[in-house]
């Protein structure tokens, strides 16, 4: 189901209908896109072979990360993805289908020739290889910490315009956003209020903000919303121009880290269970204690669940 369908109220019943094993593939990528895609496919197959049904790839998994690389590696997805102009789209769809998994395909640089805009875009596929949803990074990574890191995605990229909720048939709903988006609690809270069982963030923090905030953000989003939070990074490559933090991580609804990689290539796997969400919400019943008489519900007002420009799910 697409983001627009998911915009309906939270589905009835448990937020996660049955346990699901998740894999965070902390991938070592280089500058050769075809090699990156092949390597991603091998790792997704490995995760599926060990029983994972929901597999996550990192931000910019098919290219080096950096504003100068976005135009060179960008793929055209609209009006429809031509396999020649969008090899990553075709590969991701095949990875999902060949392995019968739900796949959050990290993110890839996207180019829309009709608007001449670039985006940082995540494609989410179902086990039949069909596109379930598309998320374009809503909050661009523009920061300046003097002497440490300056990064301005907005020099090249345009922001996405929707909150992305994805229904995984048979399981439940997830919220998907990308990296810097995790710093904005609104997206996470909207997803949780609309019944998501997990928030999934392909991300690529750095060696300044990674040690400071990566784990804290994952735990904060999990604690506030009492759901699972997954953050999936590329492996660190000190020979690359951008040094990713690594530490792909899954945090449970009590904000406990249930799986964490170090800096090199790894697959982090763990089972997600509705019982843990329900137990957390029973023990600390935030959902029934909110004071909408004092402040408005985050669900009030217009929330954009559908960017009309984005491809409809297949
Ligand atoms: O928020 C941060 O510190 C890092 C964000 C980032 O690396 C990204 O959005 O790609």
UniProtKB/TrEMBL annotation:
<dbReference type="GO" id="GO:0006541">
    <property type="term" value="P:glutamine metabolic process"/>
</dbReference>
<dbReference type="Pfam" id="PF00795">
    <property type="entry name" value="CN_hydrolase"/>
</dbReference>
<protein>
    <submittedName>
        <fullName>Hydrolase-like protein</fullName>
    </submittedName>
</protein>
<keyword id="KW-0378">Hydrolase</keyword>
<dbReference type="InterPro" id="IPR036526">
    <property type="entry name" value="C-N_Hydrolase_sf"/>
</dbReference>
<dbReference type="GO" id="GO:0005739">
    <property type="term" value="C:mitochondrion"/>
</dbReference>
<dbReference type="InterPro" id="IPR001110">
    <property type="entry name" value="UPF0012_CS"/>
</dbReference>
<dbReference type="GO" id="GO:0043605">
    <property type="term" value="P:amide catabolic process"/>
</dbReference>
<feature type="domain" description="CN hydrolase">
    <location>
        <begin position="20"/>
        <end position="274"/>
    </location>
</feature>
<dbReference type="GO" id="GO:0050152">
    <property type="term" value="F:omega-amidase activity"/>
</dbReference>
<dbReference type="GO" id="GO:0006107">
    <property type="term" value="P:oxaloacetate metabolic process"/>
</dbReference>
<comment type="similarity">
    <text>Belongs to the carbon-nitrogen hydrolase superfamily. NIT1/NIT2 family.</text>
</comment>
<dbReference type="InterPro" id="IPR045254">
    <property type="entry name" value="Nit1/2_C-N_Hydrolase"/>
</dbReference>
<dbReference type="GO" id="GO:0006528">
    <property type="term" value="P:asparagine metabolic process"/>
</dbReference>
<dbReference type="InterPro" id="IPR003010">
    <property type="entry name" value="C-N_Hydrolase"/>
</dbReference>
């Amino acid at each position: 189901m697409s983001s627009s369908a998911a915009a309906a109220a939270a589905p009835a019943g448990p937020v996660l209908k049955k346990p699901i094993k998740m894999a965070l593939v902390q991938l070592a990528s280089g500058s050769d896109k075809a090699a990156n895609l092949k390597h991603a496919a091998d790792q997704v197959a490995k995760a599926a072979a060990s029983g994972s049904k929901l597999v996550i790839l990192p931000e910019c998994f098919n290219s080096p990360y950096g504003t100068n690389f976005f135009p060179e590696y960008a793929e055209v997805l609209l009006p429809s993805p031509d396999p020649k102009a969008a090899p990553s789209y075709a590969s991701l769809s095949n990875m999902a289908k060949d392995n019968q998994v739900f796949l959050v395909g990290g993110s890839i640089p996207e180019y829309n020739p009709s608007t001449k805009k670039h985006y940082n875009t995540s494609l989410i596929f179902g086990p039949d290889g069909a596109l379930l949803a598309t998320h374009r990074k809503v909050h661009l990574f523009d920061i300046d910490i003097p002497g440490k890191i300056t990064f301005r995605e907005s020099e090249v990229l345009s922001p996405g315009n929707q909150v992305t909720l994805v229904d995984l048939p048979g399981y439940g709903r997830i919220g998907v956003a990308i990296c810097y988006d995790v710093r904005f609690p609104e997206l996470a809270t909207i997803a949780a209020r609309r019944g998501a069982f997990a928030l999934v963030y392909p991300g690529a923090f750095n060696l300044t903000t990674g040690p400071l905030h990566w784990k804290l953000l994952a735990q904060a989003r999990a604690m506030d919303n009492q759901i699972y939070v997954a953050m999936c990074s590329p492996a660190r490559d000190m020979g690359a121009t951008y040094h990713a933090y690594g530490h792909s991580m899954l945090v449970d609804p009590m904000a406990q880290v249930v799986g964490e990689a170090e800096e090199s290539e790894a697959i982090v796997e763990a089972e997600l269970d509705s019982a843990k969400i329900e137990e957390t919400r029973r023990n600390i019943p935030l959902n029934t204690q909110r004071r909408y008489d004092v402040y408005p519900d985050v669900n009030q007002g217009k929330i954009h669940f559908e960017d009309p420009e984005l491809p409809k799910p297949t």
